[in-house]
């Protein structure tokens, strides 16, 4: 069962959806604001080398200039 991660375009909440199978046609909405406007994000691998005290947690963003203006990359920890 794959887990897909999304970012709400309205409230910017990150959330996950577990897909049970090909026939899983339930409506996906943001659990925080109930918006249907969201983008699927690429999950980052979540592991740390060394002691657990060195691991960083949470969503991180990186802004850069690109051909269409300013682009933002989100690093989302896995579950």
From TrEMBL:
Q: Superkingdom of the source?
A: Bacteria
Please report the name of this protein according to its UniProt entry: Zinc ribbon domain-containing protein
One Pfam family cited in the UniProt record for this chain: Zn_ribbon_8
Q: Which SMART domains match?
A: CxxC_CXXC_SSSS
InterPro entries assigned to the protein according to its UniProt record, in alphabetical order: Regulatory_FmdB_Zinc_ribbon
- Species source reads Desulfobacter latus
Q: Where is the Putative regulatory protein FmdB zinc ribbon domain?
A: 1-43
